[in-house]
Amino acid sequence: MRYLTAGESHGPQLTTIIEGLPAGMPLLGEDINTDLARRQKGHGRGRRMQIEKDTAFIASGVRHGLTLGSPLALVVENNDWKHWTKIMGSEPISAQESDEVKRKITRPRPGHADLNGGIKYGHRDLRNVLERSSARETTVRVAAGAVAKKLLSLLGIEIASHVIEIGGITAVRPSLPIEEVKERSEASPVRCLDEEAGRKMMEAIDTAKANGDSIGGIVEVIVEGMPAGVGSYVHYDRKLDAKIAAAIVSINAFKGVEIGIGFEAAHRPGSEVHDEIAWDQEQGYYRKSNNLGGFEGGMTTGMPIIVRGVMKPIPTLYKPLQSIDIDTKEPFSASIERSDSCAVPAAAVVAEAAVAWEIAAALMDQFSSDRMDVLVQAIESQREYAREF
Ligand SMILES: Cc1cc2nc3c(=O)[nH]c(=O)nc-3n(C[C@H](O)[C@H](O)[C@H](O)COP(=O)(O)O)c2cc1C
Ligand SMILES: C=C(O[C@@H]1CC(C(=O)O)=C[C@@H](OP(=O)(O)O)[C@H]1O)C(=O)O
Question: For this UniProt entry, which residues form the secretion signal (predicted)?
Fold first, then answer.
């Protein structure tokens, strides 16, 4: 199973094409739109989110609520496009029309793809870089992730996300059933399960914004119900934990990833890291703890998958950073019109989508099927087999 995305931040639309879904999977627009709306929320988002009302149009691959097995195309229109038709149009623009009409950019923003992207593709109008490097693209990543989540839920696999840190304020993570993690994170404007910490996070976002600054944080994704033995140890590029790590770091502004206790493993002796193996009739094999976050040897253990990702502070600041104009080579202070001051709560939804996609793709790799009913059977058999092994 694979997907591609296309679209510029201020272009007419964002598109994703998903290939390899089984036929006969129930899928409705609302399965996708719920997650698109979740991604738009969160304390600290900027004015663009008031313009957009992201909804997916299912352009192909579904008929009467069921997937066909053919490519699934999803389209999300940019409401902002109507203000950008001239600037972002695909028709050539006349030589008479000024760079101002094109809103040409020659001033790369620190922390963005602008300068490196200009050098790589030879764009001297850096708008050609930023339109695609923008995290607006995460809209359709979330749409693809929502489709993956639907597939997983039909296989008895649930996924949730929440925020565990913003701007140095850390939440106490209560041990909760996954349904409650979903409900409580949804009820919080910063997707935090710890109400007290959530309030402080909001204050920290407001303070950063008032100072013209931005803050980052840490999100956590939890997956329950995965059968054991998915992924592989035989090759670097078949290890499922490695694929998940790459998917997390591929999200705009994500700089690190942890699986299970992650970097904490460096401080503990082996006896306090490795999870002892046990077996009983009802559960089959299980681990007495889950420090390794559901993975050993690039494969699932059947325990919950725990993945964390760290997001750097948003790079566009109202307090301007210094940079160099690529035409004049003169220094300047970057000024901005609008930006998020913190997008960590929104990014939790993106991280959830990224993990859901990798897990669904790994299942489709290993239990490849053109039919949803056959896939359901295959996963059930794997669970039974792993229990009795
Ligand atoms: C959901 C989300 C929203 C974002 N919003 C903004 C924003 O409003 N302003 C900004 O400068 N960066 C924003 N970013 C981060 C930039 O897109 C990102 O830092 C930039 O593309 C450079 O990529 P890199 O940080 O991965 O190197 C956002 C990221 C995410 C995940
Ligand atoms: C549009 C989204 O996020 C955008 C991501 C982004 C960036 O530089 O990454 C910059 C801002 O865009 P604009 O310059 O249009 O205000 C954010 O609003 C979105 O999340 O849907």
Answer: none
CATH of domain 2-388: 3.60.150.10
Distance in angstroms (rounded) separating the CA atoms of residues 345 and 29: 23
Distance 78 CA to ligand 2 centre (A): 11
Measured distance CA(170)–CA(218) in Å, rounded = 9
Percent of the chain with pLDDT over 90: 91
Q: Is 351 in the pocket of ligand 1 (CB under 6 A)?
A: no
- Those residues whose C-beta lies under 8 Å from the C-beta of residue 267, and which sit 6 or more positions away, are none
| Token representation of residue 206 | 């407001």
The owner of tokens 């607006």 is: 136
Give the number of other Cβ atoms within 10 Å of residue 266's Cβ. Answer: 8
**316 has binding-site annotation:** yes
State the DSSP H helix or E strand holding residue 170, giving kind and residue range, or none if neither: strand 169-170
Closest atom of ligand 1 to CA, residue 315? 11
What does pLDDT average to over the chain?
Answer: 96
Question: What's the pLDDT at 368?
Answer: 86
pLDDT value of residue 327: 96
DSSP string, 191-236: --S-HHHHHHHHHHHHHHHHTT----EEEEEEEE-PPSS-B-SSSG
345 token code pair: 């709560």
Ligand 2 centroid to residue 377 C-alpha, Å: 42
With a CB cutoff of 8 Å and minimum separation 6, the contacts of 264 are: none
Domain coordinates in residue numbering, the chain: 2-388
**141 marked as part of a ligand binding site:** no
- Number of H helices and E strands in the chain, helices first, is 12, 17
What secondary structure letter does DSSP report for 63?
A: E
Residue in the block written with tokens 């698109």: 36
Q: Is residue 314 a known part of a binding site? A: yes
Q: Which residues of the chain have pLDDT under 50?
A: none
